[in-house]
């Protein structure tokens, strides 16, 4: 969803004036409010990277509210002279920074914000009202937040209720009762905030209060309400934000425009805002020392030795090529004339717009919503950083990736590489200006790409980059665009059922403890468990007793199990059952998750909004959530899932004969493992023996020792060690794999997947033994889990290229497709065949599949 930021200029300007000590420019003009306001604005633009942002101004003349009530704002004093002198600078800054601004005769900034909020929601945008004024609580709704940047707080509906005690739909009534001394809104004399909240907890609205005045508790409160009825109803008119103000309809009216660079620099120099000038325009002196630096060209630097806590990153900077470009703006028609078949284009965006570039030209695309369709037609080959996000912005459907610096940086060192500025600094021994100009950004992208290409070559990372990550980007784009249908009615029923169960658990927990308390508060829970109930306390944190899962599992009391159940159901309800319906797009009634291709350290994909990777499936309640993911009308879902993929990879890598034999004979791997380590016939393996063997199988792949296995199985550490020893006696090559992998990881500092994807293990350099042991476990698991992730990626690419079915989701080792039942029956065998033969291993890859009306049926 596009995001629209609405700035309540007067409120933020006043707060800046009183928050910043007096400052003057070289000419003696006061500038403290400008300084504070600009600080807030730059921080907002840097962190939020808004595309649509509007300054909303009050007018000098009175608004329509003065006609309703002559006393409205009658007590307001004149604006301080030092503040009045600074107002023109704010308006000038808006002009030079390309920020749209609105003021409407007869209305206040609040009303403009109300109208723009309505416009934004009508256009399916998320709206952020940037202000510290509580009156905007009445506008908060799904996808609309009140954002107090000075307090770093965003209020949604729950936040409004928590802060002021009333829901957003009651906020006007609340303000009508309490009034507003600063605006001389009378309200109900004698009733304050607590009284208003109490009334609105009992009654729906102000009108409901007066219609049921006889039911109001307390003679005094009733008398006050009756005496102030006219003022209360008048106040409601005064505090209601009007959303019918006529505002421009076109998106362009609210999109940030390019800066007027020369004039902006001149103004900052006039105000003596040297820091802002450096942050906005950069400086040749702006360099940083990277943790580890190697020079292969004319650029040189000296790096300090990394501290214990620092991440060691190989930095390789080639000579920088900063150039000037023919910079201009083009509409769709002009761009169509400029493009040609198979052209290579750079693409990036910032707060000022969308830009495409060649070796000589830098073009701002004025109507970029059509850019994707146009460049798809010309089969443009794109270069950039995080191309998938850029393609979404411009509406591309079948784009072609030539180069993506984000994915290259991820191949070089897996982890979070989502922020271009941070990654650029990390590898280039340089920093970008906080709001770099388009030319500066383009040069940064080009130079960063040159460095990444050179570095990829040196670490043999091209194959992983070119064969896996780069071609996958357009497939993920397609999957995100398709989304998946959600059964909101089923989720509503599940929510009600969960609420009943949660309430019953809460009642049982309170009965066990002997009193009511907030179960969701770790502090209150700790006091109840360890002070009142005198249960043995475990870990203690800075804020009190630890009540994490490990601590609760160690408590031998019925209340612990109840609390764990309460937490599980509460999280399931809030994170998925209640949240999923709010994520459904009104355009197609589907949920569109975002797949993060460059985030995890393992090479696996992750997803957000919703996080599909973490939907709990081990419990019956968790499995029910999958029933809510449904096929579209006249369609079915196909789930295709790799069976025991990580253990099969372990068998391949270790070449262990017993492990390979079990898979070659298609045995139940956990039962076969149990038969080996317990020395019994396969037919004599009990469910308990299989369960312990399963724990060992998965534990070995994650570097688990006797302590972890003992915790998992609820046995002594001696028993766990004995089981592990027997496992390694029967599976000797697995032991050799573990020992050799740890040794190589210490020598090289990294491990590799079967396809050459590296996982650097920085923890191995730590002097902290616990951290070092974690690094060794990660080293054991990374080649296995990373290879599994690469296999799934390769399968996705193969299937996408060769089978005409719509791929919707990827969750760990599982792929979800949506088609007619006829097509799924026709193509499912081809999908299975491709996935099972995607890479030859010493053991066969096995895939299970099912077709159904929902994810649970097809799983």
UniProtKB/TrEMBL annotation:
Which chemical reaction does it catalyze?
Answer: DNA(n) + a 2'-deoxyribonucleoside 5'-triphosphate = DNA(n+1) + diphosphate
Enzyme class per UniProt? transferase
Tell me which EC number(s) this protein carries: 2.7.7.7
Question: Is DNA-binding given among the entry's keywords?
Answer: yes
Keywords annotated in UniProt: DNA damage, DNA repair, DNA replication, DNA-binding, DNA-directed DNA polymerase, Exonuclease, Hydrolase, Nuclease, Nucleotidyltransferase, Transferase
SUPFAM superfamilies listed in its UniProt record: 5' to 3' exonuclease, C-terminal subdomain (SSF47807), DNA/RNA polymerases (SSF56672), PIN domain-like (SSF88723)
What's the superkingdom here? Bacteria
Q: Which GO terms describe its molecular function?
A: 5'-3' exonuclease activity; DNA binding; DNA-directed DNA polymerase activity
What's a Pfam family this protein contains? 5_3_exonuc
The record, for InterPro entries, names: 5-3_exonucl_a-hlix_arch_N, 5-3_exonuclease, 5-3_exonuclease_C_sf, DNA-dir_DNA_pol_A_CS, DNA-dir_DNA_pol_A_palm_dom, DNA/RNA_pol_sf, DNA_polI_H3TH, DNA_polymerase_1
Record PANTHER family: DNA POLYMERASE I (PTHR10133), DNA POLYMERASE NU (PTHR10133:SF27)
Question: What family does this chain come from, according to its entry?
Answer: Belongs to the DNA polymerase type-A family.
* Purpose: In addition to polymerase activity, this DNA polymerase exhibits 5'-3' exonuclease activity.
Q: Know the name of this protein?
A: DNA polymerase I
This protein's species is Bdellovibrio bacteriovorus
